[in-house]
Amino acid sequence: MAKSRAESDKTVFNDEASTTVRFDGTVHDNIGREQKSNIDEQREMNSEDIHTANMKPDAEKAQRKLARYLLHLLHGIYGWLCTQPNVAEFLVFRLLTGMAAASYMSTGGGTVADLLPKEERGVAKAIFTAGPLFGPTGLATAITVLFMHETSPINKFKSKAARLRKETGSPDLRAAGDRQTLAKQLVLYALTRPTVALISLYIAFNFGVTMLLLATFPTLSDRLLKAEGGNYRAERRLIMMMFVSPMFLIELFIYGWTTEYKVHWVVPIIGIAICGPGAVIINSSSQTYIIDIFGHQGAASALAAITLLRNLTGAFLPLAAPTLYANLGLGWGNSVLAFITVAFIPVPIYFYVHGASLRKRFSVEI
């Protein structure tokens, strides 16, 4: 264990691009050994609900680690191929890039189910949901370094002036606007100005609090589970989802009709703000619920199906927006979407009430 941690620490200092891969693998291996007994117990607990067959879905048969590494590599390659000047090629490779990136969304739930017992998955899923905040990978950085050009006119002139100084041997050649100000001085100058200082503090605090609140929602069911002495019900993952589902309905009506009648711009913004937290909670709560139902044997395949349908809808539904709003306007166009949303509001309520009986009637066979 100590040796593995030492190797991962060494990797952090030597190569940032491979840090995520090696450190992630080391941590997962360590957790897997430490949680082995918990996983064995979990398998015994799930044996009544999950009937193991000889053949498993593709997402369960494949090694999650191998799938991630391979598709991560393909994601980078397709991202590079998106630089093609041809529009058709760009669209094709952009689609392939998104499909490769979906590997983490589909296998991440399986990993959470592999490593953690049910009462601890809420926190892990919250961290997983916050993954996009951790920034791009080393591969994306390498592509940026190789292919991204300078866009600042001042920096372009400074580079040209430096080249001319080297060619002519004249140290007095300077670009217009080159004040020789240190970056440290520029940052200090900006942060000591009230406008930048106060706005940056406010934005930072607001963003941090928002992420903090969203990260704590999935843990609510964990606390309820412990408070009830471990009497587990997977449907408790849907409690927050039931409360926030109507937010989409409210947001669509507010946004659609306030923009239709050209109400002050702050009102549509309020409508969109209502929708944001609800989207995150619905996504996180529903995926955690699926993980608990299917367990370590079937969660990856179930989430793969969900991710496929979700991404296809997200890709093609916006294409209908111009026709929808051109024919119906913003008011009735968004109202149509709101009416469709009404049909989905009872879904988490239904599963919360009848979920246990449905699991017994339609047992998960893998």
Automatic annotation (TrEMBL):
Subcellular location per the Swiss-Prot or TrEMBL entry: Membrane
GO cellular component terms, A-Z: membrane
Region (Disordered): 27-46
Matching InterPro entries: MFS_trans_sf
SUPFAM superfamilies per UniProt: MFS general substrate transporter
Transmembrane segments: 126-148, 196-217, 238-257, 263-282, 329-353
Main location: membrane
Topological category with respect to the lipid bilayer: Multi-pass membrane protein
Name of this protein: Major facilitator superfamily transporter
Originating species: Fusarium anthophilum
